[in-house]
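Table 4 source record.
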Amino acid sequence: MPYAIKDDGSFRAVSEDMELQEGETLYEDVPQWVYDLIEANRINAELTAAEDAWRTKEMESIADQLIAMEDDDPEALPGTERQWRDYRTLVRGWKEGHPDFPSAGSRPHRPA
C-alpha cells in the first residue's frame, strides 16, 4: 500500500487515485526514518515532561529557600540571596528554546 509522507514524519495511506497534499512525498512503504523520527519525538516528549516537572518543583524549592533566608532559618541551604535569585532566573529559563533543554545533565545547578 502506498503512503504519503511529510518531512515531519506524519503519514497517511493513500490509494493510487488520491492526490498528494502539499509537502507530501509518495513512498511504497513507510521508511525506517519515519519510525525513528516518531520514536525520537516520543522520547523528547517524555524528557520534556520530566524537565517541566523538575522546573516546577525546583521553583517551589527556591521560593521556600528564599523565605527561609528571609527568616534567618538555620536550616536554610548554602548560598546568598543573590545567588538563589540568579539560580531562579536560570531555572525559569530551563524550558523549550534553551539550547540544552531537555538534557537533565545540563540543568542549572543550585548555589553551593
